[in-house]
Amino acid sequence: MCDDLTESDNSLFFARRDVAKLGAGAGLAAMLGSYATAAMGAETTPVVAETPALPVTSAMVEIPTLDGTADAFFVHPDSGRHPAVILWPDIAGLRPAYQQMANRLASAGYAVLAVNQYYRRARSPVLSSFAEWRSEAGRARLQPMINDLIPWATMRDADSFVSWLDAQPSVDVRREIGSAGYCMGGPHAFRTAAASAGRVGAIASFHGGGLVTDAGDSPHRLMDRFTAIMLIAIAQNDHDRRPGDKDALIAAMEANDRPGEVEVYPAQHGWCTIDSPVFDPVQAERAWSRMLAMFGERLQGRTEAA
């Protein structure tokens, strides 16, 4: 998750990046362009072409839960019924960046619910950008809200979100549901699958924090409670600090005969979120492509060759 160690890692990343930029006498765009070229030269998972964008309709919605009323951003193609996806934002919460990401996923043929995980204390946006989380005031504001997110509460919320989605005319209830989580949302995607095992068929975790812990209900120990296929994209600095997590996740997948993909990406924690200071467009596109491939196969019944 976005803790002090992550911030320390990112500070070192910024320092190295700035030194490289000054030494080259180039702007940020040129620097990122050269990094992208190097990254694409590495051995990577294949990238799947995105389908043409569909026009979408969006609105803020309110969803009853056992703990109150959750606000969320709901976006779906203008016509027809489509598989649903629950999107769990990172630690900074639901904000314009995640609405934009939800819009993009919806345009690929999904009914997407981007949720405000902090609804018990505040409506979204709690913070307007990821940069606010890095401030002292932003951390102080969020900490009580973070403390509310105990596992059983998240699972109750997930069950409420699935029930709400199944009642929407834009959702194809014949299709399984997907869930994608970023940073602290990574474990939430796992808990969504465990809470609604009969409905959730695919989950994706991007630089998810706390996927492997000593707790009895650690996300990696929930795989015996669901049948969802998994995409687990791990940040390089997270892997460097806890290299055993990848092995534990793979071992749990094998022990429970769960299909999926686990990969360490050459990018910093937070690289997939578009307003993150360490957003990496090349590696974010790779991760996004893998998610679309998985959702297309499991939720839409498509194959990569199609």
Topology summary:
Layout: H1 4-24, H2 28-40, E1 56-65, E2 68-77, E3 84-88, H3 96-107, E4 111-115, H4 130-133, H5 136-147, H6 151-166, E5 177-182, H7 185-195, E6 200-206, E7 229-235, H8 236-241, H9 244-255, E8 260-265, H10 281-298
Parallel strand pairs: 3-4, 3-5, 5-6, 6-7, 7-8
Antiparallel strand pairs: 1-2, 2-4
Number of helices: 10
CATH level-4 homologous superfamily: Alpha/Beta hydrolase fold, catalytic domain
CATH topology: Rossmann fold
pLDDT averaged residue by residue? 86
Topology, number of strands: 8
Strand content: 15-25%
* Count of discrete domains: 1
Name of the top-level CATH class: Alpha Beta
Uncertain runs are 13-44
Strand order of the largest sheet: 1-2-4-3-5-6-7-8
State the order of secondary-structure elements, H for helix, E for strand.
Answer: HHEEEHEHHHEHEEHHEH
Helical content, roughly?
40-55%
Organism: Sphingomonas lacunae
Keywords: Hydrolase
GO molecular function, one term: hydrolase activity
Pfam families: DLH (PF01738)
Descriptive overview:
One of its GO terms (molecular function) is hydrolase activity. Keywords: Hydrolase. InterPro entries: AB_hydrolase_fold, Dienelactn_hydro, Dienelactone_hydrolase-like. This protein is globular. With 306 residues, the protein is of the alpha/beta class. The chain is built from ten helices and eight strands. The chain has an eight-stranded mixed sheet with strand order 1-2-4-3-5-6-7-8, sandwiched between helices. It is 41% helix and 18% strand. About 10% of the residues have low confidence. The chain has a single domain, classed as 3-Layer(aba) Sandwich (Rossmann fold).
